[in-house]
Design a protein that fits this description.
The structure holds 2 protein chains of 2 kinds.
Chain A lengths: L10 E6 H11 L4 E4 L6 H14 L2 E4 L3 H13 L4 E5 L1 H17 L3 E9 L5 E5 L4 H6 L8 E3 L4 H18 L2 E7 H5 L1 E6 L43 E3 L13 H16 L2 H4 L2 E4 L6 E5 L3 H14 L4 E6 L1 E3 L3 H10 L2 E6 L5 H9 L4 E6 L8 H10 L5
Parallel strand pairs in A: 2-3, 2-4, 4-5, 5-8, 7-8, 12-13, 12-15, 15-16
Antiparallel strand pairs in A: 1-9, 5-6, 7-14, 11-13
Helix pairs in contact in A: 1-2, 1-6, 3-4, 10-13, 11-12
Chain B lengths: L3 H5 L28 H15 L6 E5 L7 H4 L3 E4 L5 H11 L4 E7 H7 L1 H10 L3 E7 L2 E2 L5 E2 L23 H8 L3 E6 L3 H13 L3 E7 L3 H5 L7 H11 E3 L16 E8 L5 H13 L9
Parallel strand pairs in B: 1-2, 1-3, 3-4, 4-8, 7-8, 9-10
Antiparallel strand pairs in B: 5-6, 7-10
Helix pairs in contact in B: 2-8, 5-6
Classes of the chains: A alpha/beta, B alpha/beta.
């Protein structure tokens, strides 16, 4: 299915990442956004609030992030594609409803334009310190998909991808931007509507008598319905059986939870989205994501100039983590250098997957600015390369 | 002497008149003997039948707690959401599809403690929904802790020497927040409550029905008020019907008089009407109304 022409502002624009993400949502067919504005994500909802009256969408400014993150799910079960937008403090408040979306398999999109934390932290300055929260923030076991843009263009492209993945995998998809990417203004090319691939919601063709809310028909994904169509569904955040009815037994819990996790983890390779550069001969690989994936470039260039064999792996999909990929790469290289705008989050995943086969070195940064490329260069120089 | 024949005589089973509205495959329900929630469900089911609404278009949204389980027993599109968040879920549901009739059905703790903020904002916006609050003056499911409705001096596990925490007067809160319809009845007043729900369902905008209900297991017993029947007798003897009463005068004291009746019935434009009218004024023909 292609995007609707009316929704798409085809052309070249000079806009920031927040505005681009808003356009991405509109192009993806999002028709309901609930939000509680928060720096540095506010421009996304402002863009949407300005544009929605012209494209048949509804924006509502809710009383808080808790309300926003559940209102969008109400809209999903009324048949709409929906999104909410926030930054760290609001993301913390939304955790309960990321869990609700995970257990009820409600397809929806959350954008977090990350800023420094904890608590109110650095409202106008960048960080990448919510990455583990994106993975583990709501209580209980569950899986989501988290994707991380590094440019305004990608804020547009990946927001569309987020909506598509949400429909395909029946999960909340998290677009983990950061303040730099959100407020950075660059050229954003919005293609013709018929060049934009949209995944439509897979509504069941079964009759109300045949349909069961969590019947996966031999796949890993159940089919959707919407309120008002006569299916008389029951949706609950309690552990539930195939019919959607509460069923609190270890057996039902095991069956439900296993599928919620496996539907993502067993599709990791399909969901994998990485960019590799100069890794064929690399002894050292820099693993980065988001804005940091741009900051590392001069450091890698300088080290290469000095004869160090340095490559770069940029993670676009961070969750699910590309575990088999890093495991294999660790057998071929001597070291991973992991710069991130936090004091060590994704580095733990890299180190775990390296499993002792390669040294793993964090280049921490508490946030508030991006790394100095020199710090990354120094870290590259500091790792031991075996002859 | 017991008439042996009478024991053996089969009593013809009458079909439960609201059975078609219940998910019978989920019975028995979890509520205690003497609990009033089932009575309110009966009132709701009858009101729904009388309202002649297309039942496929009715969605029911609950939060967490004993009353939160109502959604799971009604044979409607039903949503058992998170604690306190039934109203914002219902807001999204209703705004995204205006053809739905959306009912929020939850308890006093869920709607007015953890969910209090959402209640006042949905009323302020006048989102078109009916909120039914079963007010049993306590947190039942979790074992009898005081709620923001527990009358002062009543005992709960968390205020074991009696509560000194001033409670909300729910009709006053609903009224002052902008609800277009506000009524309070008790589970003794089944016909009045049914009528009130029917009227609330017929209103466009944010309508609110409070039903005072006994919790014999965790409120009455701890406060030595007898069983469910004793509470019904109490409601019968102590309720005062005052339609049109000023809501600021209908607060409840521990075992005091209960003012019941229809307090508010007025018209206000709904959130959606306001949005469409305003944006049409601003944009004229360019305005693309939301495709609900």
């Amino acid at each position: 299915m292609k995007a609707n022409k009316r929704d798409v502002l085809t052309g070249a624009h000079f806009i920031d990442g927040d505005h681009a993400a808003g356009e991405g949502a509109i192009a993806a067919g999002c028709k309901f956004v609930a939000g509680y504005p928060i720096t540095p994500s506010t421009e996304i909802v402002e863009r949407i609030a300005a544009r929605f009256p012209l494209v048949g969408g509804m924006f509502i400014q809710m009383e808080d992030e808790i309300a926003s993150s559940i209102a969008i799910q109400g809209a999903v079960w009324a048949g709409k594609k929906s999104m909410t937008v926030t930054s760290g403090p609001g993301f913390s408040l939304m955790m309960e409803h990321i869990g609700f979306a995970a257990i009820t398999e409600t397809p929806c999109v959350f954008i977090n334009v990350q800023r420094g934390g904890p608590s109110t932290g650095l409202p106008t300055l960048p960080a990448q310190a919510d990455m583990m929260q994106a993975r583990w923030g709501s209580h209980g076991d569950y899986e989501t998909i988290a994707i991380v843009p590094n440019s305004p263009q990608e804020c547009f492209d990946l927001t569309i991808r987020a909506f598509n993945l949400a429909e395909e995998y029946r999960v909340p998809v998290l677009v983990m931007m950061d303040e730099c990417v959100g407020h950075m203004t660059e050229k954003v090319v919005i293609p013709e509507a018929d060049k934009i691939e949209i995944v439509e919601r897979k509504f069941t063709k079964k009759s109300p008598g045949e349909y069961r809310l969590y019947d996966t028909n031999g796949t890993m994904f159940p089919e959707m319905v919407k309120a008002g169509d006569g299916y008389r569904i029951h949706l609950t955040g309690l552990t539930h059986d195939e019919k959607g009815y509460p069923a609190m037994s270890p057996k039902v819990q095991q069956k439900m939870l296993r599928r919620l996790v496996d539907k993502i983890l067993t599709n990791e390779e399909k969901l994998r989205h990485i960019e590799e550069d100069q890794i064929d001969d690399a002894d050292i690989v820099v693993v980065s994501y988001g804005i940091t994936s741009r900051v590392v470039l001069p450091a890698i260039k300088k080290a290469r100039k000095e004869g160090l064999k340095v490559g770069h792996v940029r993670l676009v999909t961070v969750w699910p983590f590309p575990e088999p990929y890093i495991r294999e790469l660790a057998k071929k290289v001597d070291a991973f250098v992991v710069p991130e705008l936090n004091l060590g989050q994704i580095v733990h995943e890299v180190e775990r997957c390296a499993a002792g086969n390669a040294e793993t070195k964090l280049v921490p940064h508490a946030g508030g600015a991006v790394h100095a490329p020199e710090d990354i260069y120094d870290a590259i120089k500091g790792v031991v390369v075996h002859a | 002497m017991l008439d042996q024949n009478a024991v053996e005589t089969e009593i013809p089973e009458k079909e439960n008149p609201v059975e078609s509205l219940l998910r019978m495959d989920r019975m028995p329900h979890i509520w205690c003997p003497g609990c009033g929630i089932g009575t309110t469900v009966n009132c709701f089911a009858r009101a729904l039948e009388q309202s002649k609404l297309d039942l496929d278009s009715v969605s029911i949204v609950s939060g967490i707690g004993c009353t939160g389980r109502v959604a799971g027993y009604l044979n409607l599109d039903s949503f058992h959401t998170t604690h306190g968040r039934a109203i914002p879920f219902a807001t999204g549901l209703k705004l995204a599809n205006p053809n739905l009739k959306v009912v929020v059905y939850s308890g006093d703790g869920d709607l007015f403690a953890i969910g209090g903020n959402h209640f006042i904002h949905a009323a302020r916006r006048n989102v078109d929904m009916t909120v039914i609050c079963v007010n049993n003056l306590i947190y039942g499911m979790t074992g009898g802790q005081v709620a923001p409705t527990t009358p002062v001096t009543a005992k709960g596990t968390t205020y074991p020497y009696g509560s000194y925490d001033p409670p909300f007067n729910l009709p006053y809160l609903a009224d002052s927040s902008g609800a277009v319809y506000v009524a309070r009845w008790t589970t003794y007043h089944v016909r009045h409550a049914t009528k009130a729900i029917k009227e609330a369902l017929a209103r466009r905008g944010f309508s609110f029905v409070e039903i005072i209900s006994p919790c014999p297991t965790l409120y009455s017993r701890r406060n030595r008020l007898g069983d469910g029947l004793d509470q019904m007798n109490f409601y019968k003897e102590n309720s005062v019907i005052k339609n049109g009463a000023d809501t600021k005068d209908v607060g409840m004291d521990f075992q005091g008089k209960i003012t019941v009746g229809k307090f508010v019935d007025r018209e206000r434009k709904t959130y959606r009407q306001l949005m469409n009218e305003h944006l049409t004024n601003v944009f004229g023909e360019q305005y693309t109304p939301y495709e609900g």
